Amino acid sequence: MLLGDCGSTWTKMLDTGTGRYEIIQTREMVRRTDIFFDIATGHSARKRCDLFRNELISLAQGALSLVETDDFSIIDVGGRDVKFVEFEKRKVKRLDWNLACGSSTGATIELLGSYYEVDFTDLDPSERWINVTCGVFGMEKVLEHVSTGTGAEEAVAMFLHGMVRNVYDFAGRPPVIYLSGGFCENNCFLKTFDSYCNVIPLGRMVPLEGLRSEERLSGNNV
Amino acid sequence: MIPIGDSRLIGYYGFPRRCLIAGVREDLGPDLELVDLDIDHGAPDSGLLPVTTCRIISNIMNNAILLKDRLEVIIAAVGEGKCDRGRNISFLLKGMGLSVIESRFCEEEWEDRELVFSTGMGTLAGRIDRIMASVTDPSISSDQPPKCLPTHGFWGVPPNDYRILDLFPPTTHLYGWIRCVEAGRPSDMALESFVDKQVPTVFFTQSFCAKQDLAHYLAEKYGGIAVDCHREINDSILAKVEAFIALS
Model pTM? Predict the structure, then answer.
């Protein structure tokens, strides 16, 4: 059975028969006509699967399958949106989904990183931050900083810091937060977040785990 | 719906005082049809307002321009029961030569009508339409929906795009300005900010509407979600509401 989490920039796939995970760019997934999912979630998945699942529900179910704590919060920072779920006694207490200004999230960071050739593995966090009201305003601030003498890497780190503040506020400033999505692999983002709260990265496969746990519950024994 | 043809019309927006509506109808004759200018009737964009204008306000302007030659008068809610932009639009329309009667729904005229449709069972769209129809026809309905306990809540104003309403189960109660209209108290802040605490509620506003302040505050206070959209609902907003309803 092929499960898919088709985000706007990256598509995560799990073949439950072989246990093989694969990540490809969504633009490649869209081009490839041989990929069709049995169950899928994510913005780009609706017409590429037999069964479509809501992204926020998949995230919540994935979090419950991966985290054993009774009370916890998880946030998924994606290419164009941010999803948040807070659990109390393993029941959903609060959730939210920031859709309107998704340009402030992953896709913008990828653009900036690519443009300035920044390696996020080695990028040092910045104590300074810029106000990322939205991705476009944030990018303008980065360009302004660079043009007035701030190093490109520092400016990008400041943008990341601004994003972290937004994400932290969006989650209601919890003392501990589980992180889902591509930013789990961004060291600068994780280090910056650590200055606000204890962040525990769960990786990019949380929604896929949600789909898999749903299948287990339905008796398909995936 | 706008009556086809070139018949004369009475336009209104928001919830004007009932005595003003009755007075205008008496003066102009009961045959003149009333048209709610808040609703998207498919009028072309007037281009007269900033793009960051609440869709309901844009609808008022677009409809008024489209119907300019047919509108005998516009009864405009401009007080606390509407918003500052309702007042501004009244000023603009008068400046364009339209006849406008301003209405400020005062506390002394508040009513205490039974909340039949807000707390009844049935489709949200149908119940909201019935409530909004009560602005011009306050007679008691004979086919009232059965009462039910709320499983979910919808707070706010009638949305520009009704598709969001299809997501809610029939046991959803209505809160916010919609409930205020049914009660006959359009500027009652206490009633507008009331929700049943344990009921998972979606706090809906049009984007760029001042009620976003209330929606965000109440969503945070009661653990609901605030949702706003400009013009038409998109798939992402529908997915967010769908997830909230499923997980709450």
Answer: 0.83
Measure the CA–CA gap between B63 and B202, rounded to whole angstroms. Answer: 29
Question: Is A96 close to B239, i.e. CB distance below 8 A?
Answer: no
pLDDT digits (tens, 9 = 90+) for B20-59: 999 999 999 988 999 999 999 999 999 999 988 999 999 9
| CA–CA dist A17, A4 (Å, integer) | 14
- Check CB contact of A169 with chain B, cutoff 8 Å: no
**Distance (Å, rounded) from C-alpha B190 to C-alpha B227?**
21
Residue with tokens 């007037």: B46
User: Which ranges in A41-134 belong to alpha helices (H)?
Assistant: 55-66, 106-116
What span, in angstroms and rounded, lies between the C-alpha atoms of B35 and B26? 16
Q: What is the DSSP string of B177-212?
A: HHHHHHHT-TT-HHHHT---TTS-EEEEEETT-THH
Question: Is residue A6 less than 8 Å (CB to CB) from chain B?
Answer: no
B236 closest CB neighbour out of A92, A94, A99: A99
Contact with chain B for residue A93, Cβ under 8 A: yes
CA atoms lying within 13 Å on the CB side of residue A167: 36
